[in-house]
């Protein structure tokens, strides 16, 4: 069975739109730098920055992020012997060439997997202990993210948001350092001075990156979009014939108490969670089975 590939489904497009305020802030910062460096060509730096987004489509970028940002390693010969046949089965069902994907390993005791950029499919060392068909279903879910374009959009948004996020991070760390110095001095005037400096830094951050004012609204919406993309990847996995095996993995997580931990985390944590609860994912997979009365593999 070959799943018709649908690039950039609605949740992914929604995520891209939510990134617009931050991207505009980045563009403003790049423009200010360009104005200081080449004032006679105000357009140069913003245009170069926009064009630089093409770097996320360079395969080497995926490898760099996998190694430098996510600390993923290449599989050993034994691990590759387990994963490659399973990935070939998944790609055969999806009608894509398995050579396009790079297998990577996360050293973790938690069962986990991830898709990065346009090529990386990674699983944790704990996930390697799953039964073969369950592990194959996990790989199908991650390939589903690639087929829907989720990972490419996320990487593109991350790249364009870098300048704005870097400025905010710098301001936060500087403010924390100033407050720490004020506390070490210990006098009331030192604390008051540190508070004044922090307020000034916050004002600079807002002027340089106005998007920070929208964080309380954007963050929950981005999390909601992420949860929708997870359900979409589950759907693709089911369409490829891995619904029953994916259900087994989700039920395993339920038995391990994942949903109980989520419930104890509180409303705010649930609103900002990047993944739906296992119970919700299981319910959605069962709903897909009901209309025709046939199995998820049909």
UniProtKB/TrEMBL annotation:
The chain crosses the membrane at residues 12-37, 43-70, 188-219. Signal peptide: none annotated. Binds 1 zinc ion per subunit. Residues 84-287 form the Peptidase M48 domain. Its cofactor is Zn(2+). Its main location: membrane. It is a multi-pass membrane protein. It comes from the Bacteria. Keywords: Cell membrane, Hydrolase, Membrane, Metal-binding, Metalloprotease, Protease, Transmembrane, Transmembrane helix, Zinc. It is found in: Cell membrane. Belongs to the peptidase M48 family. This is Peptidase M48. The lineage of its organism: Bacteria, Bacillati, Actinomycetota, Actinomycetes, Pseudonocardiales.
């Amino acid at each position: 069975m070959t799943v018709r590939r649908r690039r950039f489904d609605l949740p992914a497009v929604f995520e891209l739109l939510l990134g617009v305020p931050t991207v505009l802030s980045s563009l403003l910062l790049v423009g200010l730098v360009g104005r200081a460096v080449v004032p006679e060509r105000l357009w140069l730096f913003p245009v170069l920055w926009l064009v630089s987004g093409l770097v996320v489509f360079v395969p080497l970028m995926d490898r760099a992020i996998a190694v430098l940002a996510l600390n993923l390693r290449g599989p050993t010969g034994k691990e590759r012997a387990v994963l490659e046949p399973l990935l070939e089965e998944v790609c055969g069902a999806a009608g894509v060439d398995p050579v396009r994907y790079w297998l990577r390993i996360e050293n973790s005791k938690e069962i986990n997997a991830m898709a990065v950029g346009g090529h990386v499919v990674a699983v944790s060392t704990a996930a390697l202990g799953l039964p073969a068909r369950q592990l194959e279903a996990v790989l199908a879910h991650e390939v589903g993210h690639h087929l829907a374009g989720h990972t490419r959009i996320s990487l593109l948004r991350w790249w364009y948001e870098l300048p704005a996020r870097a400025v905010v991070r710098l301001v936060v760390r500087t403010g924390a350092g100033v407050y720490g110095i004020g506390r070490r001095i210990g006098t009331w005037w030192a604390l008051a001075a540190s508070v004044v400096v922090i307020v000034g830094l916050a004002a600079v951050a807002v002027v340089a990156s106005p998007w920070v004012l929208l964080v309380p609204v954007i963050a929950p919406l981005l999390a909601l979009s992420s949860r929708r993309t997870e359900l979409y990847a589950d759907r693709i996995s089911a369409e490829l014939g891995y619904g029953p095996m994916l259900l087994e993995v989700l039920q395993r997580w339920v038995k391990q108490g994942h949903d109980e931990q989520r419930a104890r985390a509180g409303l705010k944590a649930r609103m900002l969670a990047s993944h739906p609860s296992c119970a919700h994912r299981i319910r959605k997979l069962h709903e897909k089975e009901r209309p025709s009365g046939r199995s998820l593999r049909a």
